[in-house]
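hey all, quick one before standup. I had two proteins in the batch that finished overnight and I want to keep them in one place so we stop losing track of which output belongs to which input. First protein below, input sequence then structure tokens straight from the run.
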Amino acid sequence: MLRSLRVSVSKIQRVKEALKRNGLRQTDLGTEVGVYSRSTVVNFVNGKPVSYDNFLEFCNRLGLDWQEIADLNTPSQDNVDSAPPQGFYAYDDAWVGREQLLAELGQKLRGTSRLLLILGLTGIGKTALAEKLAVELQDWLDGDWKNRLRRANFDNEDKATDFASVAARWLEEWGERLSPEEKKPELLLYRLAKYLRENQVLVLIDSLERLLTGNEAEGWGDFADEWWEKFFLNLLSAESCNSRLIITSQDLPVKLVDSRYRNFWHRQILYGLTDSEQVALFEKTGLDVSEDLPDRPLLLRIGKAYKGHPLVLRVIIGEILSEPFNGDVQAYWHDERENTSQKIEEVEKALAEAEQGKNLGEKDEWELHKLTRQVRDQVNKQKLQKAFNRLARDVKDAYVLICAASVYRAPEKEEYWLKHLVHWLKRLENQECSKERQTRAIEELGNRFLVEESLNYNKKRVLGQHNLIRSVAIEHRKQLLEIFNTK
């Protein structure tokens, strides 16, 4: 007897139509047949294995012939081989979209690209993409996760970030014996680079920005530990290298973007999920986004306000599915305690006015980064405020610029942004801001992906802020204004 079954890919739409025909949501289906695990129902509807008994119960309730919709040709263990290895925390079963990007990046890694830099805004999905790529490359690794995959997550502030410590750990995990005398950086560099050149290994490095340093005069993007730079350049300059490195970073490591080795590295900037990917995410995580339901437009409005920011959307979905809402999108939208709808509508109104030419919003009260308690805790406190505090600490001019430019609701010319910087710094320091300082401030925001470049209707380059970043910048702008008022 089969222990598990799954809906054939070609019959998934038929299952969804049966749900609609029976007037059921996914949560209702589970309740009616006595299956209270939301993930089980979601797996059934999306063609993933569920137990044999549950499969039959679902089919009976929907009036479907289980033998007609079941995939009887795929072994029940088909998901085991493609499951992510233990320790993957960002990529999970709720992954959606980015198919073309995955294919392109996978092809590059299987080809000549030895080093892949995944860059972008905090929470945009860089680590999840890196982990998904590792899963896609499991055949390249022969499924040997234990011996051919290594990882360093520098987001963990308790772990050592110096090259010698990380290199020694990796080599010892590969069975390389190291005497105390051999743990010098130059010897570790030679041993590690040699191992990676000669063996086919995949290395994931998260939060590379924590390894970078610099100053306002010369810019940021240098490595605090010079041996990291030497290590990366050693692999890029080698005649051949069998291993591949996938690196995520909020900041651009300038020293690695060397045109001499352009054939051996690739830089990928990551953006939010598209509208269709957002719908797929809502559906895959258990929300009903049927065309005729009032829930769909509300979820799409939330997705549009956040420009498909994956972390925020996942947090919001988790809140909707949890108590007290239990999947009720309408109740979440109209929650009076958090004023959810009001916060989204404030952003929609401002953006609509910007389209009509009212681009200045000095009195806007955006609170996208504080939509609800979970967004405040998991996104604002843990991610966004850290990025802004790091910017304020490292590059004061860039911090002032992003706060000052938050008055713009839509992209504007660079010269307009810089006029605000000149004005604010004159008030702060009582002196003129040189062209050199202005250029460095703009470049630093670009290197940290806190500014978005585009072309306007005249094909001129303009600068803008992601809605979420602008929301935080508005708050910080108010804090700077309070400092002005006390002087």
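OK second protein, same deal, sequence then tokens:
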Amino acid sequence: MLTILLNPSNPEPLYQQICTAIREDIAQGVLRPDEKLPSRRALSAHLQTSIVTVQTAYEQLAAEGYLYSRPRAGYFVDPDAPLLAHMPKETAFPSSQPAKTDPDDRIVFSTSGVDLEQFPFATWAKLSRQVLSSKQEKLLQSPPAMGLYELRAAIAAHLRAFRDIHAAPEQILVGAGTEYLLGILVQLLGASRRYAVEEPGYSKGKRILRSNGASVIDVPMDQNGLQLAALQQSGASVAHVTPSHQFPTGIIMPVRRRAELLAWASAQADRYLIEDDYDSELRFLGKPLPSLYSMDNSGHVIYMNTFARTLAPSLRIGYVVLPPPLAKQFEQDFSFYSSSVPCFEQYTLVHFLQEGYFERHLNRMKKTYRQRQKRLTELLRSHPLGAYLHICGEAAGLHLLLEVQLPCTEQELVQAAAAAHVVVYGLSDYYETPQAVPPTPQIVLGYACLSPEELEQGTMRLLDSWLPFLRKHCIKPA
């Protein structure tokens, strides 16, 4: 008779306890292939449980392939049951959530986020309800590869009004963020090309290009942006640039350099510029310079932008404007794709753009960020270290570049800040060639995610942590 210890206080049902015990006996060889098991009545009497419980256990094991039954003969061990018993068990993985070790008063000058408290939740919820009530059937359909036509038309109207970009909806491709769209562009343009990127620059963009099989070459910057001579010598046929507000230096590319880049692109039929206009709407001083796309007369610029910086990163909605030949090529070669952005979010954004909510939200955000940036620069300049700090990139965007003219290294500045529970990032983090890093320490300060209180506390704590370097600088040798 089988030896099975049932535990009534165990939350596992009794029939499952019987199943587990029989599986273990098969795995250990206690029960052999084709061996007959006790009858339901005999085993239930032995275990002092109901016949139904034993019957349920036998049927479950038979369904799993451990047992088989013969009419009027009972249940037997399946000849292949030992194979099932020795199958690999579920692997236990450690929790993916790391233990919280960060101090509660930690302040991060992140460059990747936005002020989520400013998101227009009430308006977005209202528009979402309208979409749910009026677009029920359409929400369940698969969106076309380039995105809903209504959204592409709304984006085209927005670009005409705010960036003087005149593009047809048929040229606009909507996708789940610029990272996804970069991968699509590599497929469209070809991975066999050489892609030039800014140095220093957006490190994730470089990784995305490489992960799609592209050959990537770093091209150095000067005070006007991407160096044209270095680009010409690179052998690249595609260049990824951020002319409106270079990341992370904050350089705004002047019109002359833009014209030179356009001349480079138009010199050969297979050359393209990918213009990443990621935060062009967030300009605080003067009128924005014309985009490369609006200056291009030869069809060699691909314009890219995202709503992640102006609305919320989690929406994952970005878009590119393709020159007409590339738009036709996408329709021909990639129309089997479905859009990577759900219809629900696309329809909601259509209303948000068409009804003027985006423009009003953008004006509020510009005012908020401008006030925040102004306060940050005031704190930097009024501190005893102010005379040793040079601020770059105030005209636009959500970060500043801080040049620190003290007798220390960039790493020492970052470490001193960390000791004060403040996280900042050095400019060297955005270089792939260490020998190209400027000798003067430079720190990248993102401020969009910080509340006014955090901005005040974080800036003062940061600068105070650097004061020992000033005292070291002021000590006169004997």
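Flagging for whoever picks this up: The first strand starts at residue 67 and ends at 70. The two ends are 96 Å apart (CA to CA).
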